[in-house]
Amino acid sequence: MSARYGMVIDLDRCTGCGSCMVACAAENNVPPATSRATPRTGLTPMLVRKVSNGADGAAKREVFIPISCMHCGNETPCVSVCPQQAVEVDKATGIVMQMPQRCLGCRYCMVACPYHARYFNWWDPAWPAGMEKSLNPGVAVRMRGVVEKCNLCHARLHSAMEKAAANRKKEIDPADYIPACVEACPTGAILFGNLADKNDGVFSAAHSPDAFRLLARLGTEPKVYYKSGQAWVRALAERDSERAKESEHV
Amino acid sequence: MKFSRRDLLIGSAGATAGFLLTPVPWKLLGDVSIWTQNWPWIPQPVRGPVETTQSFCTLCASGCGIRARMAAGYPVGISGVRNHPITKGALCPLGFAAHQLNWHPQRLREVRHRGRAASWAEARAAFEKARKEGPVAVVDGRSGRAASSVLEAFAKKENDSYQVVPSVESQALAPYADWSGDPVSAFGYDLENVRTIVSFGAPLLDGWGAPGRFTRLWSERAVGAADPQLRLIQIESSLSRTAGCAWQWVPVREGSEAQLAAGVARVLLEEDLVAAQGPMPQLSLVEVAAQTGLTTEAIRDLARKMVENRPVMVIATDGNPAIAALNVLLGAVGAPGGIIKRGERVQPQAPYEASGGSPRAILLDATVPWEFTPKTDGEVFRFAAWDGGGNKADWLLPAPGFLEELTDVPTAPTSAVDTYAVALNLVAPPAEIKGAAQFLLELDPSLRVVEQVIHRRCEELFHARRGMVYAEQAIAITEFDSAQKFEEQLRKGAVWMDSPPRISAFRCELKEWPAENNVRQGTNWAAAWAPPVLPALATKLYQESNLRELPAGRQA
C-alpha cells in the first residue's frame, strides 16, 4: 500500500456548522470539556475558525476555516522536535501519526506546529457516569499529559485494511476509509482521498487554480488543501496565525 | 591515594553521564509514560461485536436517517444515511453526539412532583382525579405520529382537547393556511425547483428544516459561480451564517423586515414586475427606506432581482403575513418552486391556544419543546427525557430517550413530499421510563397501541401502491408482495417517499395588505431540538472553541 492521503476543503461551501468538530470528537473518543476548559486549553483535533475580511457593514464578509493537522510531508516540524519519537510519518499513507504511549507531554511539537493544530490533554479524560458505554471501541482513550491531534481517523483505515485482508485484497476500497469529518460535512465541502492518485477526485481538486495551502512558503508540504473562489480568502493563506487571530470576529 | 573533593565531582559527573548513555533511564521514562496512561479510573470503551443498524433521529421533526454503530447493545457512533432521499447523509452537529444524550447528568430517571421523588401510581392518581373534575388537555409537539394518534384518541374519547404546539417552520406556513382554509400541515416548500430564494432572516443554512435538504441543494446549485443556478438572497440585520453564505446579503435594521416586504411589494406592483394584482401597501417607499435603513434604490434593486431568476420563493422566520403576502404577489403559492400543497395524507390539527379555557390538567408530550409553558390553573404533567431545570411543571414524568422508543417518523414540516419511516427502539430504556402514549394506554387499555397504529399505517401505504421505498436501493412499493414485507423493510431503516405531488394552484386571496407586524428574529441553531440539554460533546462548539454561543435556554 502506497498512498498520500489528504483533504481538499472548499471554504466557499463551509457554513461553519461544526458538524465536523463534533463527529471527530465522537469518533476519536475525545472527552467533553471540563468546566475549566477554554478555547486555548480544549481538545479540538478538528477546529473551525471564523475569520472576517475586516470590513464593516454590508462589505463585511466572513469565512469558516476548518483546521486540523495538516499532515506535513516535508521536514514535518513536529516529527523533527519530538524527543520520544512519538510522532512519525507513516510512509505507506503519508499520515502523521501521534503515538500517545510514547508521548512525554513536553509539548515541543505544539510549539513547532505552524498551524496550532496540536492540543495538550490538560485533564483526565472524563465522561458523565455511564457515558463511557457510548465510546467508540475502535479507539483507545488517551491519558492526561499527552499531546493529541488529528490522525485522519486511523482506526477507520485499520478497519478498511482488515476488511481488504479478509477479502484477500491488497488495496483497500476507498469507500471503506472516509474520516469522520468528511463523512459528517452536510455540504460536502471536505473532499478526502489519495493525493498521489491522479484518478482520485482529490488530486484534481488540489491542483485546481483556486486551491491553496496554508503557509505554503514554509515548505512543509501540508496534505490539507483549501479552495476558494474569493481572492481575499486565498490571501489568508500566507498570513501568520497571530495576524489572522487579530481579525477574528467571534 | 587521597580522595579529593575534585575526584568526587568528576566521579559523580562521569557516573551521571555514563548512566545517561545506557538505555536504562530512557526505557524507564518510556515505561513510566505508558504506565501512567493506564490508570484504572480512565474510562475504557465497551468491548463486543460492532454492528451497524439504520434508523432515524427523533430529536426533532426532521427525522434524519441515521446509521448507528452498536457495540454490546449500546450505540457508539452515529452517522448519516446517504441513501435517505431527503436528508442525504447530513445530520446537524448535535446529531453526531446524540447517542451520548441518554447518559446526560440531567437525564430524568424518576417521577418528580414539585421537586420531590414520586411514583407513577401517584402521577396516575393525580391525573385521573383531575380528569374527573373537568376536561384535561393533551398537548403534542409533533403531530402525525402513531403516538400522536393515541394521544388524540384518548383526548377525544372524553371530550378533552388535543392540541399541537406548531414547530417554527409550521408557524411560517400558518398564513397560507389562514388564507386558503387548508390545514397548515398540508403545506411544504418546493425547494428543489426554486431558482431564487429570498429569506427574511430564516436560518436556512443553520438549523432550518432537515439539515441535509437545503444545505445539499445550496452546495450543489448555489456555490461556485458568479451567477449560480440557485440564488439565495438573505435579508437580515446581522451577518449570520446564512447571510455570509448568501448570493446577496441585504442588511436591514432589526425588526424592519415586514416593512421591507411592504416596500418590495409596492415596487413589484408599481413597476408591473408581477402578473398578480394585489392590494397596495400603505407605506410609501420613502417611509420604508427610513424604517429599514436601506435606500429607495436598494429596495427597487431588490425587487427587480427577486423576479430576475424565477421561480422565486420567500421564506420567513415566522408567520408574519406581510412577508407571506409577497409569495402571493409573486405567484409562488401552488406553483413549482413555491409553497405547495403536499398530498392527500394530511390530518387537520388544532394548534395550541392558551385562551381555550383552563383545563383541570395539561399533559405535555415529550416532543413539546421545553421552552413551552402552558398557562393554566390546573396541574401540568410534563413528559421529558431530560430535566431542563426551572419550575416548568407540577409533574415531571421520565420519558424514553434517544433510540429508546419505537416510533414512526411522519413527513417533516417543510417537506415537499410525504414520507414515512419507522424508528426502532434500539436501546433498552432504564427502568421506570415510559412515554405519554404508554401512560395514557394504561389509563385506557381500549386504545390502539403504537405498534398497532404503525402496522395499520404500513398496510394503508402498501394498499395505496404509491411511491418508492429507499433502502440500499430505491424500490417501487408495487414490487413488494405484501404489507408485511413492506413493513419489515421500513423496520430495517428504509424510508417510504410518496410520488411527487401534482402541484395545483390554491387560492390565497389578499383583500388588503397585511399589517407590518414585528418579525421574530432568526432562531438559534438548536431551535428545532426538543430536549432542553445538548450532548456533552457540544462543548467543542461553544466552550472549547469560539465557533458558536451556547443556545439560549439550553444546558450543556
How would you describe the overall organization of this protein?
The complex is a heterodimer of chains A (250) and B (556). Chain A is α+β, with helices and mostly antiparallel strands and 250 residues long. Chain A has one domain (5-246): Alpha-Beta Plaits (2-Layer Sandwich). Chain A is 22% helix and 16% strand. Chain A is built from 8 helices and 10 strands. Chain A has helices at 19-27, 77-81, 108-112, 154-166, 180-184, 201-206, 231-235, 241-246, and strands spanning 5-10, 47-52, 62-67, 87-89, 96-98, 119-120, 147-148, 190-194, 211-212, 224-227. In chain A, strands 8-1-10-9 form a 4-stranded mixed beta sheet. In chain A, a hairpin with a 6-residue loop joins strand 4 and strand 5 (96-98). Chain B is an alpha/beta fold and 556 residues long. Chain B has a domain at 169-345: Dimethylsulfoxide Reductase, domain 2. Chain B contains 15 helices and 21 strands. Chain B has helices at 5-21, 24-35, 120-133, 146-157, 168-180, 211-221, 241-245, 257-270, 285-292, 296-308, 321-329, 436-443, 450-464, 483-491, 539-542, and strands at residues 50-56, 65-71, 74-80, 111-113, 116-118, 136-140, 161-164, 187-189, 196-200, 231-236, 248-251, 312-316, 339-341, 361-364, 379-384, 395-398, 407-409, 419-423, 468-470, 474-476, 495-497. Chain B is globular, with a radius of gyration of 29 Å. The model of chain B has no long low-confidence stretch (mean pLDDT 89). At the A-B interface, helix 1, strand 2 and helix 5 of A face helix 2, strand 3, helix 6, helix 7 and helix 15 of B.
Quick rundown:
The complex is a heterodimer of chains A (250) and B (556). Chain A is α+β, with helices and mostly antiparallel strands and 250 residues long.
Task: List descriptors.
heterodimer; A: 250 residues; alpha+beta; Alpha-Beta Plaits; four-stranded mixed sheet; two-stranded antiparallel sheet; 8 helices; globular; disordered C terminus; B: 556 residues; alpha/beta; Dimethylsulfoxide Reductase, domain 2; seven-stranded mixed sheet; five-stranded antiparallel sheet; 15 helices
